[in-house]
Amino acid sequence: MKALRWHNVKDLRLENIEEPIARKGEVKLKVEWCGICGSDLHEYTAGPIFIPAETSHPLTGDKAPIVMGHEFSGQVIEVGEGVTRVQIGDRVAIEPIYSCGTCDACRKGKYNLCPDMGFYGLAGGGGGFSEFASVPEHMLHKLPENVSNEQGALVEPSAVALHSVKQSKLQVGDKAAVFGTGPIGLLVIEALKAAGATEIYAVELSEQRRQKAEEFGAIGINPNNGDAVQQILKLTNGGVDVAFEVTGVPPVLKQAINSTKFDGETIIVSIFEKEALIHPQDIVLKERNLTGIIGYRDVFPAVISLMEQGYFPADKLVTKRITLDEVIEAGFEGLLKERNHIKILVKAE
Length: 349
Known about the structure:
The protein is α/β, with parallel strands linked by helices. About 30% of the residues lie in helices and about 25% in strands. Strand 1 and strand 2 (about 10-15) form a beta hairpin.
């Protein structure tokens, strides 16, 4: 079968590899759609970050080259021994987190904080940029009839957004700012709407992305029109309750912190390639809080339920649909050359 494999930084290869089988406790899927994630792009341009390159991952036993793709949907075509939760023909979204199940974090239900945590499609085991995938049963979530396969490929990034809002101190009626309105930033706006935020400010340099954020109901802030922090402080009469940093650009973290009011909170959603300098006084003097999130836990059912209600819409988020044969040039390279794209989905044909 055809599969996209990461060999090294800037070295992705679409190769013919052996088709997987459904081993004990696993389910074989025909992959439907797979999204290109910002994390995938980071691995392409600056990896390895999550990918085990030199030594094998402790939970998968795999190391590079590995099949990429962790935001995907599929249809069950084979079930392995002991599988009971799904059957042939079911459509599913994949929650791609590997965790050990025995560490302190896992025992407390915080499996995304497992020290050996990895992602299917980044840490090995297979991936969504392929024609078929064999996935552990516990990673699968059934899709209801009114949630499409395209929507299914958006469940994983939407879960990141919903988890970031759930982990924040945001209350119904609060004000929020989102710094960066790429795919995750827009999904954070959707999650904030679902959580009852009354005002959502979207800070974005790209005019097209800023307009998209406004379509989602946010108030656009253009940093080219003056200091974004000062604009927010003026519009909110002192700052937002919670700010979300979703750019991964080091200077923006300081801006996000300073856009919050006294005892405000900043949630770091991004994966940073470089260190970010902040002054502790920006936190101390106003008793602000700074919180990081990684991935998600226990939110896939809530995301799917919100999708049934119309949240996280594919028709507004997906800007390009391509085939697996086009994934490198039109997908990864396309995202680097055309920064106006929101979400590119890849069809495994």
